[in-house]
Amino acid sequence: MDLQRILEIIAEYAILFFDYAGVLVLIVSGIRGVVHFFRRDPAIRLNLAKGMAISLEFKLGGEILRTVVVRTFEEIAIAGAIILLRAALAILIHWEIKVEENSRKAEASGLSDDPHSF
Question: Which of 34, 69, 115, 116 has its CA 20 to 30 Å from the CA of residue 25?
């Protein structure tokens, strides 16, 4: 067995690990989100967004590893498009997390978005 084949096998198992880890994190976050929804937890959006962000990071890691084993330009283009899409989603989710955290900090300190409140 040559080194190229060993690298491909390791990459394939690593890709599966990252993909399954991302799916598992998303499932656990979703279940926790449902539980916190019924408990009327005000931090549900923040916790769910954090879970989705972590899940996307695992999935993005799997896609980056997938570029190791691609053989054609078409496969590279598809993997690149998926990476860009997942990266854009991760950026949007991180932005949402930042906005939600700032909103929660403002609420905790007694500030309001309403300019007419005293």
Answer: 69
* Residue pLDDT, tens place only, 53-75: 999 999 988 988 888 787 788 88
Residue among 108, 95, 107 nearest 49 (CA): 95
Give CA–CA dist 44/33, Å, rounded: 6
Q: Note the maximum CA span of the chain.
A: 74
**Residues 68 and 6 sit within 8 Å (Cβ to Cβ):** no
Nearest to 45 by CA among 98, 88, 91, 87: 98
What value does the mean pLDDT take over residues 76-100?
A: 88
- State the Cα torsion 90-94-99-100 to the nearest 10°: 100
pTM, full prediction: 0.74
Alpha carbon distance 108, 101 (integer Å) = 10
**Can you list the alpha helix ranges (DSSP code H) found in 67-109?**
73-108
Q: Collapsing DSSP states into helix, strand and coil, what is residue 43?
A: coil
DSSP-derived 3-state class of residue 114: coil
